[in-house]
Specification:
Chain A has no helices and 12 strands. Chain A is an all-beta fold. Classes of the chains: A mainly beta, B mainly beta.
């Protein structure tokens, strides 16, 4: 069975600073990994995915994620945070059409 | 058009009512999903439809009844719900749900359901 862990419930960064939201996974076989963002009272919005290929994946709104097979991690990053990036972020692993989501990390970017 | 629409946005229903949630997508996706989400928690998968056939039912109580009339529409019929069923109900779609070809999901804004 697959699982995803987001070890931080909350991440706080100052605007303009780099941000990292952490994710580790456990899955049999090749992982299909995703990041989604959820703003208050909204559905989840796809940011980026890793299927195969380059370990550094670029996505929407300046976000990127680094796949590390040896550490079974898929951390979300952004070089310069914006206040508007404040939201709830979910990492997910997808196997056989089913997505398993992490518990989520609330990102707060302060001006 | 990369939009999934859901109606209604908000729904308040009593425990004896019957109501339906509706979801629509026009992206040509052949997989559609229902999720339940409690505040600040991850979405919990309820049902998956693949090519208009129910492929996954995550042991959801029978008071929730899904229906997929065609490839663009997904309904969730509600009957005799309990207060603990109050949550945000999210619909999502993806190109397929086929193993080995895992596409991203597109989510609707959700229906906020309150059971009184």
């Amino acid at each position: 069975a697959q699982s995803v862990a987001q070890p931080e419930d909350q991440v706080n960064v100052a605007e303009g600073n780099p941000l990292t939201v952490k994710c580790t996974y456990s899955v049999s076989g090749n992982p299909y990994l995703f990041w989604y963002v959820q703003y208050p009272n909204r559905g989840l919005q796809f940011l980026l995915k890793y299927i195969t290929g380059d370990n550094l994946v670029k996505g929407s709104y300046g976000f990127e994620a680094e796949f590390n097979k040896s550490q079974t991690s898929f951390h979300l990053k952004k070089p310069s945070a914006l206040v508007s990036d404040s939201a709830l972020y979910f990492c997910a692993v997808r196997v056989a059409g089913k997505s398993t989501f992490g518990d989520g990390t609330t990102l707060t970017v302060k001006p | 058009d990369t939009e999934v629409t859901q109606t209604p946005k908000h729904l308040v229903m009593g425990m004896t009512n019957k109501k339906s949630l509706k979801c629509e997508q026009h992206m040509g996706h052949r997989a559609m999903y229902w999720y339940k989400q409690k505040a600040k928690k991850p979405p919990e998968l309820m049902f998956v439809y693949s090519y208009e056939k129910l492929s996954i039912n995550e042991s959801v109580p029978s008071r929730f009844s899904p229906e997929c009339p065609n490839s663009s529409l997904l309904n969730l019929h509600l009957h005799a719900l309990q207060p603990e069923d109050s949550a945000l109900y999210l619909c999502a779609s993806s190109q397929t749900a086929t193993s080995g070809r895992d596409y991203e999901q597109y989510f609707g804004p959700g229906t906020r359901l309150t059971v009184t």
